Fold this sequence. Notes:
Chain A has helices spanning 2-20, 145-148, 179-186, 317-322; strands at 24-36, 49-64, 67-78, 82-83, 87-99, 103-113, 149-161, 164-175, 193-196, 200-208, 214-228, 239-252, 256-270, 279-295, 298-308, 333-346, 349-359, 378-389. By secondary structure, chain A is mostly beta strands.
Amino acid sequence: MSVVTCLLCSGAATAADSVWSTIQLHGFAAQSVIKTSDNRFFGDSPETSFDSTEIGINASVRLDPKVLLAGQVLARRAGDMYDGTPSLDYALADIALIASPERILGIRLGRVKNPLGLYNETRDVPFTRPGIFLPQVIYYDKVRNIVLSSDGAAVYGSLYNDLGEFSLTLIGGWPVLDENVQWTYLGGDFPGTLRPNGSVWTGSLWYATVNEQLRFGLSGALASLRYAPHQNDILGPGQTDIVYGIASLQYSAQRFTLSAEYGLEPVKWRSYGPLLPRQKVTSEGYYLQGTYRIRSNLEFMACYEEGVADRDDRDGSEFAGVTGGMVPAHAMFSKIATVGLRWDLTPNLMLRAQYQWNQGTLVLSQLENPDFTRQREYWNLLALQVAFRF
Amino acid sequence: MTHRIASNLIHWPQWITILAFTVLVMAFSPRRGLTQEVIANSGLPNTTITRNEARLFFSMKLGIWPNGAPVQVYVLPDDHPLHREFCTQVLGLYPYQLRRVWDRQVFSGTGQSPVTISSEAELIERTAASPGAVSYAAKPPENPRVRVLTVK
């Protein structure tokens, strides 16, 4: 009897030990310094801003070879946009239903990151980005939450054969919104509240060659927001429908990586009343980026990006005319050329420097730059970053 | 100070076409060579492994052996010469590509990273001691609790 109990004990202890041994803790912390010639970007950058801090910590445990639990807390300070209050970045259970060398199929339940483009899932992790800032015309920092993560369920699957890997992910859930979304999609902080109107659908389809030299992906999100007006609100109970699509291409060689992404975002507004008439506007952005590894721990990066708020009014002149110059034409587009350097002093410590030439102010947060007349069309940016990971 | 950025400098559809073509040609050119050994704990029934399986195990995308045992991956640091050789020669991946995959998984909650060990000797020891362990070595190890897997 006692022998049996003992055997049971030791069996349970071994199983528990093996689960304990799969626990992993990882994290990162980064601080940036930003100086711009004009316009506020992540704080009072014309006066030199230190208001960009990113701290994240995550834990994961494998309960079983097919079940993973994982969660991350993120604290992000970004000028006037985010104040550093910690938030739950993701918290999920990943269950593999099929796990073989030919095919993998599984589900994720909880708060999951949306797999949009090359970088959205880990957009706040400095080590995973090609620069201090991601290309803003695809990965707008002024409005990130609507596409950042979903509270819901994901189905993922991959096929592996002689051609390479084909992967598909579909996510249905609710987005997490904040006032940045309101500023961007309504052009101001109105008294009412903007809420998700039903669920958000996100999907991605990727193809990678056998040795992942070439990766091609299509990803997108469908979202709808409903505005609940406050008493005596100047806006009506409107609805905003958003479609976001990104095509991505990445080529990785020993020394260099080339990336290109193109994004399209048709947005429809209706029932907001006379102040915000029914309309459909499609914004567009693309970038081409190259990184070159001078040594294994030293990397040079160059990027060119362009984004327009309305593809039928690329230079913004029409909108400037409609608003009688209230909104200058240059607020409707951004053209940015960037050069940067990344130096990994140790596997855990990274330094970065980046310089940008900007024409246009589309990428600026209106929350940070509410007065259009004070926005300068031509502006430059210098940023330095130190980042630590474990 | 102002700088004009000429948008017509870049006619992007043409650039994309040139880029796509170059990339396609280069992506399908194979990499060659095989000198390092994939090693595993001798408790596993396997004696061979496909290159695809090796890639999936070391990229931490597949965490289970065909017999249902959990896979435990041990690696050397990214800049270790043996790690670099193993990645490029056996897996056909550059170390930075593996790192990119691990980081994407670790920081999005969709996977874990392998256990990093600082020396080859310890790598072999840990592989010998952990059931389900898979790793690599410069030559077949003497340790009887470690088996060399043939990569098909």
